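Protocol step 4 of 6: record predicted structures for both targets in the notebook before any analysis. Target 1:
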Amino acid sequence: MKSVLSERKALHPPNIDDIEHRELPGTAAQAVRDLAAEIARTSTHSAVNASEPLADPALLAQISTHAGDLPAAVRATLRPPATAAGACIVRGLPLSDSEIGPTPPDWQTAALWSTDPGRARGSLELDIAMLLLAAAAGEPFGWAGQQDGRLVNNIVPAAGHEFEQSGASSTVLLSPHTEDAFHPQRANMLMLACLRNPESVGTTVSSIRRVRLTRPHQDILRTPTLPILPDVSYGSAFERAEAVPVPTLWSEPGHEDDPGSLTLRFDPAYTPLDDACPEFREAYAQLERELERVCAMPALRPGELLLIDNDVAVHGRVPFTPRYDGTDRWLKRVNIRLPEHPRRAAESRENGYGQQIVAPFPPAPPRQAAPAREVRNERNGAVDDRGSIGHT
């Protein structure tokens, strides 16, 4: 039932020049690390939250309060992606390999190690730094049904999960997908932070605003036809739940004829494509081919962040052979909501398969639109003021 992109597909060579690059100024980057260290050092955790400090209300209150004390350059650098690529790489977060300790064998071990005083000191500090950065960008949140509701997820290869479609896989191509495409409260922006990537494993990024689709194919994909199910990280009992068909594509209101306004909701591994008519399957297959054609594959380096517009770009990962020796690829992930990008009204009728968000931070203030002269559309050179885009 579940369609997965073929591993035999030859993805295009890395083309990271197509992705916007930003540099976090040195003083601002160090301020993030220093503040994270200070919060970790001065915080005391109640016994009930001893195993998960990032669930402690007092610690979260410190992060929320002091995120506003960071240099203005942090918020400016962590603004949403501003080009048709739907993604950007932020460089400059100070990070040393010695401070993070070995790559944990799974996310559960990563959570335990973050509170173990015998382990490297950097893990909890980096989790706090991730939340400070995410709070500067918008409103960080987690999922009650994923990684025990943790706000900062650890993405590491796990033995026994090599071939599944989840962040714990490795030897299989992780299909390009919208993060948590099944849910109406999915992130507007995804932040992936690289701690370790010794084999330069590529993260795939493809933007719907770079594809070429015929109008008939677009019209088919705009029609709610199939549901999208939760991925395996949420469990496996969701096919029996009420499934609501959702559109794969839609446009900003009033811009239906402008390919530069397309947004998408896409997860072929968890979409029951066999239930659709041949016309829909062909349109969907053409979309897959186009997303493959425009794919970029940045190989993140330690200290780099990848910001992904979750309504414009899909992401995945190329296959790699895990070592399971403490040196494997290790990313941290934070989901971010942006109040200036509300969801379409139709999505409020979806049940989200009962999955609830964990949102302990107050709503972030909406960002002001960036000056039009600062942002140019890569597709045709026209002004592309992403701050004005609202998904309603």
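Target 2:
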Amino acid sequence: MTDRPPSASLDGVPAEITPAALAARPLLFASGEEAFVAERVLRTWQTPDGADAEWGDAVVAALGPGERALCALSFAAGAPGLAHQVTGSEHALRPPADAVEVPRDYQVTEFPTAEQYAEMVRAALDKIADGSLYKVVLGRCLDVLSTPPLVPGEIIDRLLRTRPGRYVFSVPLVPASDGVLPSDGPILVGASPELLVRREGRTITCTPLAGSVPRVADPAEDRRRGEGLRTSAKDLAEHAFVVEAIVHALKGVCEEIEYPASPELMSTDTIWHLATPIRARLTPGSPGPSALRLAQLLHPTPAVGGVPTAAANAVIADLEGDLRDWFAGCVGWVDADGDGEFAVTIRAAVIDGARLRLFAGAGIVAGSEPEAEVRETGAKLATMARVTGLP
């Protein structure tokens, strides 16, 4: 890894490290207050033709004791997957108390525009009305050109200060050569609130999010919005599609699948979400699928795709084009025992030199209102826009 700080050696790693002390292009995945920070890249596994089961199993089989693969999978089947085989250690990550903000000028392009996005939602509602599909997630982007260029480490600092999501990540989307990551090229950063899957031994945990509403500053109105989401027939139906799909997929490899009858409320700084914690145990008698294999099995859930899957993916391709790339995929880690944790790649950005792209989506079901979906995606985009320093 290039420009690695002295503290990032394989011997004598400190118990705590701040983002300011990380490499200029950090490679990490944080869950809560703890982060796994890569200190040496051994190999990068890539597949330009789609991260299938065989590829995922080969990555895990190659891992030795103390090694992990930090992985990013893109949204669509047949799209790229990338895994950095690394050594590293757990750290308590804390942002610097005296972070210096660098003045920047920004050129921002919104696409599709709010008006165009509302038209996309209406087109999806027509498909839902004629029975072609039940749910589809549609997204939109902000492209940002910054002068001077943004620095990944600065964004990680802000993510840790604002914590728009529990799972903070930074994964270069370029392969290492002879154990060294290039000093340029795109890097995926973000702070996802959504756990796709966690494997700890034979225990499996998922916490899907679907159904959301923007938060507001007024406490009484904010509480009213949260309670309204909890009882919204439209949002409960959208959420149920996701839970049913995950449970159905887990039944093939798990037993003792448990989840509450009704979703819970979960909040970030800008959004109320409906969330359902799901717990299960791998079926006994074999090692069972690794965390990476489980991520491949579950992804993409209807939280980022739709129902039925094929019809929703066709609508996404038709209306969005190639907006997604690495967005709405999943990102996380797996070790040699098959344990690991993957989050859905939302509240994320791709930085490539002076250019930055942000993506946000909203689930469209019967009863969705185009203007409300514009507001929802705007609130989600605002989360990462603030993290980059946009006014």
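Step 5 preliminary note on target 2. The longest strand covers residues 34-47. The mean pLDDT is 88.
Proceed to step 6 after PI sign-off.
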